[in-house]
Amino acid sequence: MLTISGNLQAEILQLDPVVSAEEGDDVILPCFHPKEQINNVLWYKQLTGQKPVLLASSYYRTQPFKFYNNFDMPKRFDLLRADGSSNLSITSIQQSDSAVYYCAVAFSNVVSFGAGTVLLLKGHHSNKYTVQQLPVPHLLYPKDSVTLQCSVITNICAGDHSVYWFRHGSGGSDPGIIFTHGNRSDQCKKSSETVSPTQSCIYKLPKNNLSLSDAGTYYCAVAACGEILYGNGTKLNVKGKNLKLIQRFQKKMVRKTKHRHAYTYTRIVLRTHATLLLNICKEREREREPVT
Fold first, then answer.
1. Where are the domains of the chain?
2. Quick one: three-class SS letters along the chain?
3. CATH topology agreement for domains 3-121 and 129-236
4. What are the beta bridge partners of residue 112?
5. Distances, alpha carbon 17 to alpha carbons 33, 51, 100, 205, 211, in Å
6. Are residues 162 and 182 in contact, defined by beta-carbon separation less than 8 angstroms?
């Protein structure tokens, strides 16, 4: 939660750090705030790499929301107000709606922000470029290292790319930007093997000395050619050290059990063979005894 000036703080809850939708869908972004000590409710929209833009504001309970920066044309944005909540409704989702939306409340000289909600478009494909993220194929443990990869492939726009990484943690933590890339020539390669020459740029995010707090889904956002496109996310599973020790112990026990079973089986076979040999010897002794 971000607070600007003053000593009073309001707890703003945006319970959905990431909301995924398909183009044309309707979504509601929840925002819960105190019922008392609140003068204004505000919503901001922030495109990747840009400053937040005021979307709407209102005096709490007394006036309807007022929209700014042409967000009321056409009328796809609306505020659903209830006791202790002011939820943002967006209808007929478009690619331009992909952004981070912040709910804020003002009281006295203090403005308090929620952690933000990232609105992602599922299945959106730009006709200018493609963003791909590779999965991490194995479990990771504390102190391990891994490198996340984001590829940008384009055959139209060869200008600079701005690439941003942000994380949606398993505990619903702030989905803010954690790393940014500029466009560098050593990250991009051109290919003329196809009819339309393509340019492929690879951006990497190294994660060293992992801890449990690094777990979550990492998204790559690319701003290029006047568009912003998100990758499908790379999930990072970081398991506790205790689990790793348990797995090692289980493997060791399996090996010991196998050896024990093999040893037991050998003893049974030898004992059986010894019994058979003893019976054969006794039978032969009986055959040698004279008949009376």
1. 3-121, 129-236, 244-292
2. CCEECCCCCCCCECCCCEEEEECCCCEEECCECCCCCCCEEEEEEECCCCCCEEEEEEECCCCCCEECCCCCCCCCEEEEEECCEEEEEECCCCHHHCEEEEEEEEECCEEEECCCEEEEEECCCCCCEEEEECCCCCCECCCCCEEEEEEEEECCCCCCCEEEEEEEECCCCCCCEEEEECCCHHHEEEECCCCCCEEEEEEEEEECCCCHHHCEEEEEEEEECCEEEECCCEEECECCHHHHHHHHHHHHHHHHHHHHHHHHHHHHHHHHHHHHHHHHHHHHHHHHCCCC
3. yes
4. 3, 105
5. 16, 19, 9, 21, 21
6. yes
Identify the pLDDT of residue 184: 47
CATH T-level assignment (fold) for domain 3-121: Immunoglobulin-like (2.60.40)
CATH of 129-236, one of 2.60.40.10, 3.30.70.330, 3.30.465.10, 2.40.30.10: 2.60.40.10
And the tokens for 156?
């139209």
The C-alpha angle 131, 133, 134, rounded to 5 degrees, equals 145
Two structure tokens written together for 167 = 């994380």
| Tokens of residue 115, six digits | 């952690």
pLDDT by residue, tens only, the chain of 292 residues: 444 444 456 788 998 888 888 889 999 999 998 888 777 889 999 887 788 999 998 876 666 788 888 887 778 999 888 888 899 999 999 888 988 899 999 888 888 999 888 888 776 666 677 888 888 888 899 999 999 998 888 766 555 667 888 887 655 455 556 666 654 444 666 655 545 567 778 888 999 999 998 888 888 888 766 667 788 889 989 987 654 554 555 556 556 555 565 556 556 655 665 666 566 666 666 655 665 5
End-to-end CA distance of the chain: 108
